[in-house]
Amino acid sequence: MNKEAKIYVAGHRGMVGSAICRRLKANGYNNIIIRTSSELDLRNQQAVQEFFANERPDYVFLAAAKVGGIHANNTFRAEFLYDNLMIEANIIHTAYLHQVTKLMFLGSSCIYPKLAPQPLREDYLLTGPLEQTNEPYAIAKIAGIKLCEAYRDQYSCNFISVMPTNLYGYNDNYDLNNSHVLPALIRKFHEAKENGSNEVVVWGTGSPMREFLFADDLADACLYLMENYNERELVNIGTGEDISIKELALLVKEVTGFEGELVFDSTKPDGTPRKLMDVSKLHNTGFKHKVELREGIKLAYEDFKQKHTVPALS
Ligand SMILES: NC(=O)C1=CN([C@@H]2O[C@H](COP(=O)(O)OP(=O)(O)OC[C@H]3O[C@@H](n4cnc5c(N)ncnc54)[C@H](OP(=O)(O)O)[C@@H]3O)[C@@H](O)[C@H]2O)C=CC1
Ligand SMILES: C[C@H]1O[C@H](OP(=O)(O)OP(=O)(O)OC[C@H]2O[C@@H](n3cnc4c(=O)[nH]c(N)nc43)[C@H](O)[C@@H]2O)[C@@H](O)[C@@H](O)C1=O
């Protein structure tokens, strides 16, 4: 991408979109186009087509989506399917109509079958049934992948798809009902410590395994792949290491300094037992993540405290 290129970051206020914008600016790209969802509802096809006609971006990072953790996915099933289908269909089709030089679609590790062999290779896609709690979101993401493939096949569009693992970092979502596990645990342990509670409830059995990548590492990977990857096939983006939810909770407990007990609420779903990504394709391109989990949790916790805790009255 040349430094004067017009780069549209869809979802710039989100955890991933804001990280991509940070990285673009740090790398000298200053022609970045952004819109909030109230300025441009990406589910509205006409509004998207007018936006592209006016702004004519050269590159698109498609990081806008309806996103949430296991409870949100399992509760707002229609919204996770409809919103994500509409957002991706509108942007991908309009990017083709306006001859965008290159588009990157962000999928997710949940697209792979619930019980696929581990670690998950990109060619395991559509080889088995999906995890029920996030099937709508996964189906939408798979449709996005197939749109990029089909527009490449029929119209020679340079649209690539990347599959991030579970993410965390600056500007994460800390709503206890809709967030992912890591931000939820950071908030729960912090508030338990501040309130003097002697226990923190962890959803599920604690036995599922999850892989976690710091969002700024993902952003680095996205810029690297936007510059260097032009293939039809998916690319997994992760660390290649996973941890049990129980071990993760104990790590967050240690970082936040909470000294009480963990209580596991097995009435809550575990979801996919494991979804470790095979990241050999990514590593073969020369890219590797930098931030390890303990350090990343410390960085995310500091960000949480700066943005979410009311300063004590002086
Ligand atoms: N977080 C994670 O663990 C993972 C995320 N991903 C993928 O990464 C991408 C970004 O996720 P993340 O940053 O965590 O999500 P966030 O929820 O933090 O951000 C999502 C963004 O999408 C925008 N958006 C949502 N609906 C609309 C709409 N109708 N019109 C316009 N904009 C909309 C929001 O805009 P606004 O703020 O203006 O309302 C928001 O900025 C998504 O594609 C997600 O599927 C993949 C794997 C894991
Ligand atoms: C990125 C990925 O994210 C989602 O899939 P998920 O990884 O299953 O989601 P999660 O992070 O919410 O849970 C991971 C595990 O953690 C356990 N857990 C414990 N305690 C809390 C807790 O307090 N909150 C949450 N949310 N989970 C908790 C929870 O029970 C589960 O076993 C989908 O969006 C999916 O589509 C997707 O792409």
Short description:
The chain has 314 residues and is α/β, with parallel strands linked by helices.
Structural key phrases:
alpha/beta; Rossmann fold; six-stranded parallel beta sheet; two-stranded parallel sheet; 12 strands; binds NADPH dihydro-nicotinamide-adenine-dinucleotide phosphate; binds the ligand C[C@H]1O[C@H](OP(=O)(O)OP(=O)(O)OC[C@H]2O[C@@H](n3cnc4c(=O)[nH]c(N)nc43)[C@H](O)[C@@H]2O)[C@@H](O)[C@@H](O)C1=O
Commentary on this structure:
With 314 residues, the protein is α/β, with parallel strands linked by helices. It has a domain at 7-168 and 212-240 and 276-291: Rossmann fold. 42% of the residues lie in helices and 14% in strands. Strands 2-1-3-4-5-10 form a six-stranded parallel sheet, with helices on both faces. It is globular and about 60 Å long. Residues 68-71, 73, 108-110, 134, 137, 166, 179-181, 184-185, 202-204, 208, 210, 245, 268-272 line the site of the ligand C[C@H]1O[C@H](OP(=O)(O)OP(=O)(O)OC[C@H]2O[C@@H](n3cnc4c(=O)[nH]c(N)nc43)[C@H](O)[C@@H]2O)[C@@H](O)[C@@H](O)C1=O. Residues 68-71, 73, 108-110, 134, 137, 166, 179-181, 184-185, 202-204, 208, 210, 245, 268-272 line the site of ligand F7E. Residues 7-238 form the NAD-dependent epimerase/dehydratase domain.
